[in-house]
Design brief:
By secondary structure, the chain is of the alpha/beta class. The chain folds into 4 domains: 1-42 and 147-173; 47-139, Nucleic acid-binding proteins (OB fold (Dihydrolipoamide Acetyltransferase, E2P), Beta Barrel); 245-431, P-loop containing nucleotide triphosphate hydrolases (Rossmann fold); 442-595, P-loop containing nucleotide triphosphate hydrolases (Rossmann fold, 3-Layer(aba) Sandwich), CATH 3.40.50.300. 39% of the residues lie in helices and 18% in strands. The strands form 4 sheets. Strands 2, 3, 4, 5, 6, 7, 8 and 9 form an 8-stranded mixed beta sheet that branches. A 7-stranded parallel beta sheet has the order 13-14-12-15-16-11-17, with helices on both faces. Helix 18 (555-562) links the parallel strand 22 (542-547) and strand 23 (573-577). Helix 6 crosses helix 7. The longest helix is centred in the N-terminal third of the chain and has 28 residues, at 203-230. The radius of gyration is 30 Å and the shape is globular. The two termini are 24 Å apart. The model is unreliable at 611-621 (pLDDT under 50).
Length: 676
């Protein structure tokens, strides 16, 4: 790319060092990054409407002639008001009102035509527009960009900086997409795309630019993920010589589902192939991913390998340790636990046993990533709740041994095509059925008027020997949302015969473990918690979960929380409590009440929330999409996936001259991941 793209943003006229820091906050430290800071929306000035066709309270453009500019009028509080009388081409008249703008008489002239942009409202039965933006009719913008903003940096200031950057573009701009590729997929050139995403004359030009930039973004992401997938594929790995999964299934007190058998068989086949496994097991809450992981650990151990399982929290790691020990210890497979909560002396003994080969399976948290944790024959790495770990963290554990098999698990159901986008470096196994006997959780949505009735329902279940969860969005404080600490106090007063405990993220690991252990052992009746219980906590005796301020959570997160109950044989219930009455909130709550299918929930979540939240780097360790929209760009994604595979078949290292630009973009994208 030309050196312009690497030019510091501070070198643009009118930016300077202080304002450059604000641009950096928005992810635009250079001119190139600024040009990739795409508008989040547009003001459409290209299609002005007549007054009588203009929607109320909705931004729109109108073409009007100024009839009269009134003199200034001052309110008692000193606010200056100016009224401008205008009419459109049909002759319909209206007043525009401007506050504290003494320059209006110099900017708007009677007899001239202008385009005005703003909201039309009704006051005293008359239509008006308050403080609209305006431009001379012959010089009005087509579609004016609205950029992501930060305090001290308005969209208009960003627009000026972008306009300057566009003027600096060289006449010949090297395009990372080859001409043949652009022709094949009807994609415009990069220069056209940048000019028309920032300053489009109309909707059509903007869509042409957006499609090309979305294609490029998805192509670069796919190239990077597929490169990761292919890394070390040619190198030798720990090879499974004997598939002993049948022996493992025989150890269990239950029969595995067909989906569990299929997923385990796919994983073992990978480990038998001679190249490292790189597989994702994706399944809904309660679909039995842990048993599949245990089967893989069993096969690895019986073939002379060590296995490591990494979980995102101490609670979940301890739970996996207990589960794997029960499953594997009877077969002579030695399982150990290593977390930050383990005492130093025990930790040191564990490390020594690991290095000497006395431990077959090590379960832990990110503590497994520290350099002093050394394996003697690590052949299998498993990460649970993959959406809590990034690509970099996953790779850090796998790099502890050359050619290691990698298995990752996620309980966040995602439509298959989208999963391939997020986890493009992985092969995919789906657990699409639940073990027999698991009953769907009955889900209901109520408002705060029925809260006391809901609490009595919890009390009834406690008296029947069951346990319950109450989920709050805050730990303390917050007038508009339930907080764990105050809620627990009120609950103890409302239900004095019920044992109440509190769990939240500010507690020390030992405190959290003690609270969860007491709840798991039945010493607590109701656990009031934040979403720290969302992942993996397994208490079969818990039959009711009440979620306060349910509107504050995404659908997939609500589904995860609902999965904390219904894990035993008893009928279980999820109560969603919200006073929010927006149509979107009602639609979201309806979905949860109608289905327990996590894949349906996830699809609905994606449609309602959009991909920004669903696929942000915080959830998946990948960069947030800047312009591609997975609601609308599924066809573009499929094309980008096909092109990425074809390019890497011919040029695995992206070394050809035609791929130089793409190689630079892939490196830039994934180097930013490494620095996160």
């Amino acid at each position: 790319m030309p050196s312009l793209f690497a030019k510091p943003i501070s070198e643009l006229k009118g930016v300077g060092s202080k304002r450059a820091e604000l641009f950096k906050k928005l992810g635009a430290p250079t001119v190139g990054a600024l040009l990739r800071l795409y508008p989040r929306a547009y003001e459409d000035w290209s299609r002005p409407v007549h007054f009588d066709a203009a929607p109320l309270d909705t931004p729109c453009a109108v073409r009007a002639q100024v009839l009269q500019v009134g003199g200034p009028v001052f309110s008692k509080s000193g606010v200056m008001l100016l009224r401008v009388r205008v009419c459109d081409e049909t002759g319909a008249a209206m007043s525009f009102v401007f506050f504290n703008n003494p320059y209006i008489p110099n900017l708007l002239h009677a007899g001239q035509m202008y385009l005005f942009y703003g909201k039309i409202t009704v006051k005293d039965g008359r239509r008006q527009m308050v403080s609209p933006e305006f431009a001379e009719a012959d010089h009005a913008p087509g579609m004016r960009p609205i950029y992501p903003q930060t305090k001290g940096l308005s969209s208009r200031l960003i627009e000026k900086a972008v306009a300057q950057a566009l003027r600096l573009l060289p006449d010949v701009l090297r395009d990372p997409l080859a001409q043949t590729l652009r022709q094949q997929y009807a994609l415009c050139e990069l220069r056209y795309a940048l000019e028309n995403i920032h300053r489009p004359p109309n909707e059509e030009s903007m869509q042409v630019a957006r499609r090309r930039l979305a294609f490029e973004e998805l192509l670069v992401l796919q190239l990077g993920m597929l490169t990761l997938k292919g890394r070390n594929r040619e190198e030798s790995a720990f090879r499974v010589e004997q598939d002993c999964t049948d022996a493992f299934w025989a150890l269990l007190p239950f029969s595995p589902t067909a989906a569990q058998r299929r997923a385990a068989a796919e994983a073992v086949a990978d480990m038998e192939s001679g190249v490292p496994m790189n597989r994702l097991i994706q399944g809904d809450v309660g679909s039995g991913k842990t048993a599949v992981a245990a089967a893989c650990c069993f096969v690895a151990a019986k073939n002379g390998m060590q296995a490591a399982l990494m979980a995102p929290t101490d609670i979940l790691a301890h739970q996996h340790f207990e589960t794997l020990s029960k499953m594997l210890a009877p077969a002579g497979v030695r399982v150990a636990l290593l977390t930050g909560a383990v005492k130093p002396k025990e930790k040191q003994a564990c490390k020594e046993a690991l290095l000497s080969g006395e431990i077959d399976v090590l379960v832990g948290t990110h503590a497994l990533l520290t350099p002093d944790v050394q394996f003697c024959r690590l052949g299998l790495v498993i990460t649970d709740e993959q959406h809590r770990f990034g690509v970099r963290q996953r790779a850090a554990l796998a790099e502890k041994a050359r050619g290691t098999h990698v298995l990752v698990m996620s309980a966040t159901p995602i439509p298959r095509t989208l999963a391939l986008m997020i986890y493009g470096d992985l092969d995919l196994s789906v657990l699409d059925e639940l073990p027999p006997g698991r009953k769907p959780v009955a889900t209901y949505c109520i408002d705060s008027a029925k809260r006391l009735r809901a609490l009595r329902f919890l009390q009834k279940h406690v008296h029947a020997g069951r346990q319950c969860y109450v989920i709050c969005p805050a730990i303390d404080g917050g007038e508009d949302k339930a907080s764990v600490l105050s809620y627990a106090q009120k609950l103890s007063r409302t239900l004095p015969d019920v044992r109440v405990a509190v769990l939240h993220g500010r507690m020390k690991p030992k405190e959290k473990d003690a609270v969860m252990e007491a709840f798991a052992n039945g010493k607590t009746d109701i656990l009031v918690s934040t979403t720290v219980v969302e992942v993996g906590v397994d208490v079969p005796n818990a039959t009711v979960i009440l979620i306060e301020n349910a509107e504050r959570y995404g659908l997939s997160q609500l589904h995860q929380l609902r999965g904390r109950v219904g894990r035993g044989k008893e009928e279980s219930y999820c109560i969603l409590l919200t006073d929010a009455q927006t149509e979107q909130t009602r639609a979201r709550m309806r979905i949860l009440c109608e289905t327990n299918d996590g894949f349906r929930v996830a699809e609905s979540d994606l449609k309602l929330r959009g991909p920004g939240d669903f696929f942000g780097s915080r959830q998946h360790g990948l960069p947030a999409l800047k312009i591609a929209d997975l609601n609308d760009d599924m066809a573009v994604l499929r094309d980008a996936q096909a092109v990425a595979k074809a390019i890497l078949r011919e040029d695995p290292g992206l070394e050809a001259e035609a791929h130089r630009g793409l190689r630079a973009e892939v490196r830039q994208l994934f180097s930013s991941l490494q620095s996160d």
